Structures are given as structure tokens and as C-alpha cells.
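Co-fold these.
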Amino acid sequence: MSKVPPEGATWDLPVRAFHWLLVVLVVFSFVTGKAGGPWLEWHMKSGYAILALLAFRIAWGFAGSPPARFSSFLRGPRAALAYARAVARGQAPHSSSHNPLGGWMVVAMIAILFFQGVTGLFTNDESAHEGPLAAIVSNRTVDRMGDLHERNHWLVLGAVVLHLVAIATYHFVLKRNLTRAMVFGPLRFPLLAMVLLALAAAGVYGVVVVLPRSAA
Amino acid sequence: MNRKYLAAAAATAVALIPAVAQTPKAEDQIKLRKAAYSLMGYTFGSLDAMASGKRPMNKDEATRNAELLAQLATIPKGFFGEGTDKAAETRARPEIWTKRADFDAKMDKMVQETGKLAQVARGGDAAALKKAVADVDTSCSNCHEDFRVKRRG
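Predicted complex below.
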């Protein structure tokens, strides 16, 4: 890496918008999921939006600006370990994208949330609300998915806490403000990102609205 | 005795079963309350679909379902007797028997909300129906949260 962009201009607008929308929706999903009852209608809508966002982020990991790409931040275990050792010594080498540990955190976060969204599609609350695909699978599968959805929400919680602890550690121990770069940066929202976002939304619409209709 | 009388007597007898019949054995109480909950889930599901616009509003159908739901809602309460925490497969949590007052209060709330829903359904107002359905929904989930074992797939 010859040139490291100054912290504060690392992330393109689609990445930043994705991140903060995801924050809002995950918190909202958590609260409405706990509240249950009529709130589950909102919980489901929030889940669909999260799935669309995740699908977009995955696509953007191939098509986005260089720091947004998986190829810029997915490093092998050796690099991750070396980075972890550096952090343990109180250093935090600059990265032009996610650092070698953070990169895996991104993948884990996307995978855990994606799993949460998909299991949600197949489950119900055993009274009035059911995911859009619950009707086209057996009750055994519905129960299984409900169980997984319930258990996996702890992983979501764990990943969020780990993420916040990491950010706090950078802030207070390593004296590095990573949040700023997730807020400030270029204000351009490329057409390609809009197209990919629209495709992601269309894909989710297909799964939650069209698919159950055509299977019924 | 003419048939009308017989029918009326039979209907009354059926309506009074939970109140006057000999208490069923624990195993059967579990079976009966589960049956009631299953039917409640079914009738409520169709009311919810109507309230949320997934099915067209039909006052007569809503009234039928809501009245049935309100009747069914009175059944489970009588079937959480002694030994029904484990006489058959059940996801009733032991707290039902250790925090009985709380459980009863939540059960009464549900009976009350389903009664309100039946009244509202007769009125045929979609917005009011939506609100009443949400209130029943909340009363269900409040009780499930505390007193029903989470499913394990």
C-alpha cells in the first residue's frame, strides 16, 4: 500500500449510508422483536429492509470504491494474527480499508445478520404473525427456523457488542477515532450503487411477496 | 318435549361444560386447553388478516370469528388445574402455578380484549377492528412471553 488515505475519507457514501441504516434497522428489529404482538408486522418489514441492505453490501463489496471491496480487506489468518499482536502491543497500523481483524468482523456481521433475516422469513410467533415463507414449509421447519432465529439473535447481540467494544478500544486506548470516517466523507452516491440497491430490493421483494404467491 | 327445547338444552349444556362438568383428568385438561388455543389461533389469524388488509373486510365473517374467539378465550382458564404442569406434553411454564395471580390477570385481560374485539367486529369499523385486533395480539404475546416455554426445533 503506497498511499493511505487520511482517516475521515475512507468510506464512500453508499458504505456509510449502509452502515447507519443498518444500525437503525437492527436496533428497531431488536426492540420490535422483543415487544412482539402487533409490533411483529414492523419487525418483519425491518427484516426485509435489512436483507436488502445486506445483499446490496455484498454486491458493493465487489463493485464499490476500493476500500469497500472485500478484496481490499479480506486477509489471511496470518495477517489477522499479526495485526492482533500489534494491537496487543498498543499499536494499530493504519489500513486503507478495514484492518485485517475488522475485515473478518465485517464478514461475520453480514453472515450473522443474513442468517437472522433468512430464518425470520420461515418462522412464526405461534399466534398471529408468520414470515412470508412459513406457509410453504412444514411446521417442523417453521419451528426449527424459529428456534434458530431465537438463538441467533444472541449472536447478533454478541457481534454488536464486540463491534462497539472494538470501536471504544480504538477510541480510548489506541487514541484512534474510527467513527469519524464512518460519518464524514465524499457525498457522491454513484448511479451504480443506486442500481445495485434497487436490484437488491427487487430481489427481496421477489422472495417475500412474489415467491409465496406463486407457491401458494 | 319438543325439539326446540331439546336443542336449547343441549346448547346450554355445551356452553356450561367448563363450569359444570366434572373436572377432567390432568392429561385431558392439557388436551382441551391446547385445542382451545389452536382454534383461537385459527380464528384470530383470519381476523388479523382482515384487520391488516390481507383479506377484504367482511363484517359478518369478522363478527362470526370474533364471537367464536371470545367464547374460546374463556376455555383455557379452567384447564390449568393441579397436575397439568406435566401430565402430558406441554409448554406451560411452572411459573403459571407459582405466579398464579399474574397468570390469571393476563388470562382475564385476554378474555376481556377478545370480548371487546367481538363487540367492535359487530360495529364493522375497520380502524376500530385493527385497534382491537392489536390489543388482543398484545395480550396473547404478553402472556406467552412469561408463561409459555420457548419452542425448540
